[in-house]
Amino acid sequence: MKKQYIWALLACLGLAACKKLDQKPESTATKDAVFGTENGLKLYTNSFYNMDFLPKNSTSQDAMSDYLAVRSVQDFIREGGFGANNSSGWSWGDLRNINYFIANCNNPAVPAAVRNNYLGIARYFRAYFYMEKVKRFGDVPWIGKPLNIDDPALNAGRDKRELVMDSVLADINFACANIQATNDPSRTTVTKWVAHAYKSRLCLFEGTFRKYHTELNLVSTANKWLEEAASAANEVIKNGGYSINNNGGPGVSYRQVFTSNTPVTNEVLQASVADINLGVLNEANWWWTSGTYGAKASFTRTFINTYLKLDGTSFTNDPAYRTMVFKDEVKNRDLRLKQTIRLGDYKRITSGQQVPAPAVFSYTFTGYQPIKWTLDDTYFDAGALNTNAIALFRYAEVLLNYAEAKAELGALTDADWALTVGALRARAGITAGLSTKPTIADPYLITNYFPGITDATILEVRRERGIELSLEGLRFPDILRWKRGSLMEQEWNGFYVPSLNTPMDLNEDGILDVAFYQGTRPNPGAAGVTYVDVSNTIGNATNSQKLKNGTSGELTWMNEIPRKWNERNYYYPIPLNDLQRNPNLKQNPGWQ
Fold it and tell me: Is the pLDDT of residue 428 over 50?
């Protein structure tokens, strides 16, 4: 798509330049062709949609998170495994492209309202660009104009977070006020409501980051950002015309949003849409169902325990939860669980036939194998073949942004709760606690996730956010802004195994699926059963998959490799080459 935009732009500029070569220099004709017509402005801003800082595949971004066990421990959280020499992300070419447009979109031949619409789109993308930089590096240089190669600003130091984020807020406010489109049936472009949704996301990030990162000395300014987040979300809620998808009922309507070939327009504000004819497809199945290509990402049991029971009570209130086997622990739970992982009556399609499909241990380390983004037909597993639309912004996130901002401000009412978390839980089949905000803090959440947070409403909004938005690329930013980086040190655990050499029927279809052994594999073993070796060593090598109590207990994966979160990890280091080119940038603390 980027190439198509570039070639179209070149063609447009070429035609314009060739009309009167004897009267105007090419550069003048080129600028007039782009900035002197609405079509030129539209063509230019269309090129922004494929810039490098935008997410390319949101189905796999959460591989860097606390709730997924993956193939190997990321270098970023291994002591001594990461430094400035292997950091990345300090690239600024896309910003120059945006700034060039903003600086030159001033031709009076185009009506001011039209120009401001496209300037709004450009400033939306500049806000997005800078938010990604601030999330990654903290303080960065604010550059509000296209720089020439001899501009002294190229060797300037970094600006304070406050200046940069105030500029980001000005950009997104301009976008919200001036983008004219309120509806795009294709759900592929930035509209006024997408801008408001993004404003709610970035303001929530900044408000909570300032609140919980007290070392910044910006706590007194946090509420301003939280109020902006709530206000932006409320604009979408009141005027956007969106709703939670409930087509098909609680047991299927959640997953429909992620597997539909066309965006579910009542809930999805913007999506990356596949097109078979253009060869624009995604690789969700390949990444999530391959034993070799993807990260074999699997949910941890600690996180799965946070899914409520259908009656609205905490699953971990049951003292038997620690030793409950898989087939039992997934019953009578929040219906999003069965739409997020393989369990129960989940089936896949092979050669047109529906086949029961429990978790496969060549694809999962923990037994909690995700299905949220994958299509059920195995045809899609062997390459980048997926046709499902990937939601980039959806109404559920807007509701949660509103709920969290209001909760952090201490202003969430029962009506707000019913509108947001209550509505999402109702779609998930939960029957109680939908109309009034909670008053009792769940000790499981405090102990395992948020020590120091005693406000029951904030805890439950965070629970809801983790479940509703799982695997959508938002978890790691949430960890950063809540200052809960130590969650990245959690052990990677899986479902409970009561004993060795005892085949388990995971989906209760009468067919035994998996058994765990140590030493010599049972021979011949039960027909059709996958046997998994959980010995401490295999040959001379340490085995990363074990049982927590030796011959029974939760599965564990790769816990022999220490994971360490230091204060410095809240920011990435400035890449070494960039720091050498411009020493005035100075390195982030702890990465020197």
Answer: yes
